[in-house]
Specification:
The protein contains no helices and eleven strands. It is mainly beta. The chain is globular, with a radius of gyration of 13 Å.
């Protein structure tokens, strides 16, 4: 049984930082071609945040987080991370880790339907 478990969310003031982690179990980490982070704010649809390729370590970000967020992975720990700096109140959302088995370019897989596996989410709240 594949599990993606997020952690690291919390309450932070605007301008602060958080680091989200996603631990992958039940499936060889390397079998995920793409790992990504999405987020969903209250009353809004789930939206793409960032993705990282397994084979090339290429990354891709939505425009609103470029220069502030960094996605990375640690194959030895079967984990993917999202370092979030200079947080803004509009970053407040539940953040989800997602995995895709089959190859696509990181810039071409940004829809929720592109991903096969999902975590349960972790809440990030940024106060002004």
């Amino acid at each position: 049984q594949v599990q993606l478990v997020e952690s690291g969310g919390g309450l932070v003031q605007a301008g602060g930082s958080l680091r989200l982690s996603c631990a992958v179990s039940g499936r060889t980490f390397s079998s995920f071609a793409i790992l990504a982070w999405f987020r969903q704010a209250p009353g809004k649809e789930r939206e793409f945040v960032a993705a990282i390729s397994r084979s090339t370590s290429n990354t891709y970000y939505t425009d609103s987080v470029k220069g502030r967020f960094t996605i990375s992975r640690d194959n030895a720990k079967n984990a993917v991370y999202l370092q979030m700096n200079s947080l803004k109140p509009e970053d407040t959302a539940v953040y989800y880790c997602a995995g895709r088995r089959y190859y696509c370019s990181v810039s071409g897989c940004y829809e929720t339907l592109d991903y096969d596996y999902w975590g349960q989410g972790t809440q990030v709240t940024v106060s002004s």
